[in-house]
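anyone else get weird line breaks when pasting these?? whatever heres mine. first is seq + tokens for prot A
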Amino acid sequence: MDKRNRALRAPDPRLLLDLLPDELFRKITEAKFCLIVDDDGTISDSHPMYIDWLARKLKRPLKPEDNTRYDFLDIDPQALGMLKAGVFGNARMHRHLPVIPGAVSALREISKKGIPIVILTARPPQKEMVRVTYDHKVDHRIPFDLMIFSRRKKEIVKAIKHLVREVVLVDDDPNVVTAASSLKGVTALLFFAFYNQRTRRKGVVPVKNWGEVLVILRNKIMNGRR
């Protein structure tokens, strides 16, 4: 598969395994392990951009710590609609985002161990958004085997789990992580954010940074290869 085509745009989760490139299918089944990682708030440090954009549109100051629930639900529905239309609809705003500290080195280490990495993002699956997301990862030399653009994250994780012994999911959305934590063989890591600190669910593992993610991944890889 050509590198620039290593993306699936809003695939039907029921057909996902048929859509996986043969090379990735073999890699996942041989590794018996897969890392699935979100982008915004987990790899890309996008939320300050969202807050700044909303503050300018609403003409009032906002801070990241003002938001204690995912998707900025504590602001108001109008602001959320503005955010989706103005920010998620403008792919160029995502082109040069900074990267969460530690993400690059952690993902490179995992990739070198032969572990498949799937970036699963809820960003809109438009062609331009796919392009800038891909280019952003290339610029920062972030390894990945496949990008999937879909809001149906639990179903995607469940489909991939059919191929492996264990999946580790890293996401900052408490709804996604809570849903995935109910799946057998899935370790659901909730990546720290101001808006997800209220989440307390059985099976959800909170992590403060990529260093903590890496410790968990190292242990699982070692245990799986004994």
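and prot B, same format (seq, then tokens)
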Amino acid sequence: MEETFGSLLRKLRKNKGIGIKKMAPEIDLDYTYLSRIENDKVMPSEQVIARISKYLRYDEDELLLMADKVPDDIKTILRENPQEALGYLRERFAHGKRSGSK
């Protein structure tokens, strides 16, 4: 099973021994909302991801990508250099797969 934002968040929180009811108010969230994030019922905003990143001391860009959000600097690179950026990524990471193939 592919890791989701919620499952990663739960794993990070538990690995640090932090309960959901302790963490939620410390990042200015209701614990029921944090639970919904961990259960992949809702996707957090970029602002919430930034607070989670800082609190758990985990790479914000990785959390953004796990939440299907692209960091602003990467968006700029893609917009300014679409062919080169996409070509590089496909060549480097596609492992022989072509776009659109399954």
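btw re prot B: The two ends are 17 Å apart (CA to CA). The chain has seven helices and no strands.
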